[in-house]
Amino acid sequence: MRALVLLSQGLHPVSGKSCLPRAEAQAARLAAMLDADASGLHAGPSSESVREALGRGLTHLTHLKLDGDPVPPIVAALRDLKPDVVLAGPCGQGGEDTGLLPYAVAHQLDWPLVAHAVAVEAAQGGLRVTQAMAKGARRFVTAPLPVLVTTHPSAPPPLPFAYGRARAGRVAAFAVSSPTAAADECETRPWRARPKVLTAQASPEAKGRLLVNPDPHEAAREILAYLCKIGVVAERPT
Amino acid sequence: MSRLRRDPRAERAALAVSSDARPRFARRPGEQRPRRDPRAERAAVETAGAAARRRFDWLARGTGSAPAAAMDAGPRLRVVNEPVFLVFAVVDAPRGHLTTQDRQTLAAAHVLAGTAGAVAMIGGGAADEADRLLPLTATPDSDVLADQLTDLVAHFQPRHVLWPESAAGGDLARRVAVRLGEPLFCGAEQINAQQVRRPAQGRRIEQRVKPPRLITLADGAVALYAGPRCEARVMEAPPRKVCASAWLNVEDAPADPAATPLGEADFVVAAGNGVSDFHAFRALARALRATPGASRMVCDAGLMPRTAQVGASGTVLAARCYFALGIAGAPQHLQGVAGCENVVAVNTDLHAAMIARAALAVVADAQAVMPALLALLEAP
Question: B125 and which of A14, A93, B28, B96 could share a cystine (Cβ 3.0–4.6 Å)?
Fold first, then answer.
C-alpha cells in the first residue's frame, strides 16, 4: 500500500517560527505504519521546514514550487503519483487556516475522505480507519482505495526526530505554475483575544431545584430521575 | 458698557417650587438631565404585603429587568408566515439532544434572520428556537449527508447556512462548501448582522467581512437565543435522490467512560472531601457509566490520580452533566465546570457554592446517598 502525506509549512503557535505542524507529523507517523517507503508532497514557495517530515517517518518528498492556488497542482501530482492512501492534517497553521484543502482535493479527484483518524490499517479491499468521534467514542470505517484521510489531535504522537534519516531523505523539487487564488474581499487587522460568551453557565433567574435533608433513598430517586431526564443515564423500566 | 450684574439669590428664588418639607427647586432652563427622585424610586420597588418591616425588591430595577419586561410585553410565540429569506442552522444533535454549540448556531441564525427572515433548523429533533424544521435522513457517511444538504441548499436557496465548528459540523460544512464551489468562512468568533470575524495565520490576524453565505461558528461566538418561543413548523422537503455510500463497512465503538480523557468525557461524577468510601464511589461511577473525577483535596491526599483532578489546575471539563459528590465548590473548581450544561450536587452545606451552581442540589451526606443510588441502579 503506497502512502503519501500532504505537508505544509506552518508557523509555530508560540514562537511564530516556521515549522512542520504537529498534526502533519502525526500523519507522517500513521503513513510510516502503513508504508515503509512513505512519501510527502508539499506545494508552496519554500520547503525549508517541511524537510522535518523526513526525520519523522517519511523517506522522500516532492516539492511543487509555486506561488498561487495549491489545489490544481496537488490534484495533478496525485493523479500522476497514484498513491493508495493520502494523509493530511485537519487544518493549516499560519495561512488561511480553513482546513478546506483536503476536501477540495478529494472532491476534485472524486475520492472518499475520512476525517478525524486516530489509527489506520490495511483491510480486505480497502483501508480500515479508526475515527475519533465526539465525547471519546470511536468508529471503525472501511473505505475503498484510493482514499484521503485527515488526522485527529488524539492520534499517536509524532515519531521522535531522527537527524540521520532527515539528512538521508531525498527532496525532488519541480517548479509549476498555478493561477493565483482569488483574493478575498476581507478587511484584516491584528488579532485581539476576545472573551468567549459563556452560554453553559446557569442563568441567575433559572434557579435549580433544592432538596434540604431528604431521605437518602428519596434523594437517590430524584437524582436518577434528573439524570434520565437530561439523557446521560439510559431510561429505566419502572 | 459694563455687563449686568447677576443676582444668584433672585435666580434661585425664581426657580423655587412650593414644598412643605424642605426647599425644592425646578430645573434650570439649560439643565438637561432630569433630577433623580430617590423617594419615588424607593416607593416603586417596595414590595406589597404587610410585612413586619418594609421590604424592597432592588433587583427589579435598572438593566436587569429591562429585557424581561420587554419579553413580557412582546408576543409569546414568534410566527414568521411569509419569510423574506431563510437562514439554515445545521445542527449536530447527537442522539437527538441539541448541544450548547447547536443552540449557539440557532442563536446566530436568529441574529442574521432578524424579524424578516426565518430560521430553519436542519437535522435534529424539536427545538423552541427554530421557525422551521427540516429533518435530514440520518446516515453515518458524511458524504451522503453532504449530498442531501447540498440538494436542500440548491432547492431552498437560503441566504445563509450556519454550522457549529465542531467535529461533525465542521466536516459537513467543508464537504458542502466544496460541492457548492463557494467560499466557507470558518471558525467565526464574533457574528452580528453587519460583520463576522475569524482568526487567521495562526491567530496573528483577524479577517472581517459582511456575513457571507456559508459560515461555521466557533464555540462561544454568540449568546443563546432569549426571544419568544418559535413555532417550529415542519417544512416540506423536496424528493431526494438516493445516494449510495462509498464506504465498505462502518462499526461503532461506544466510548469507554473509564478510559475516556476527562476533557472529552460526556458525563463526569466527581468526589470531594465529603466522600470517604472510594470503593463505593468507583462502583457508582461504573454503574452510572460516568468518568470519575475528583477535587484538588482528594487528589492531594492521593485518593484519586492527579489526572482525575477537575478545575483550573486540573482539567477544564466540556461535559454535558457533572455530578458533584461532597464538593463545596472552590472558585478554581467552579472554573473547571463552567462549561458543563447540567450540574447535580450533593453536599451537607446548604451555603456551598456548588449547591448554588447546581440545577439539582441535594443537601445531604454524600456517603449516605451513594449506597442508596447504587442500590437503585443495581435493582432489577
Answer: B96
